[in-house]
Design brief:
By secondary structure, the protein is α+β, with helices and mostly antiparallel strands. The protein has 3 helices and 2 strands; from the N terminus they run E-H-E-H-H.
Amino acid sequence: MKANFEPQFKDIKIPTFILAGAEGNIPLDWQKRYASEINGCLFEVLENNGHMIPYEDPQKVVDLLTSFIGAVTKQ
């Protein structure tokens, strides 16, 4: 049995950040659609990265998350 949570994406009310690798396993058009269904979602694509972004570019992940958390805490 496959679970499909996409219908509930519109109900997410907390700050959300989706980080995608351009060379990842999940098609970018799917991830863009998911992000567009979450109100106010920040969506970032890292070129030259795949599915293991924290391993492939850890400093970039830290920088992006630090920026996101900083922006969220100022709201």
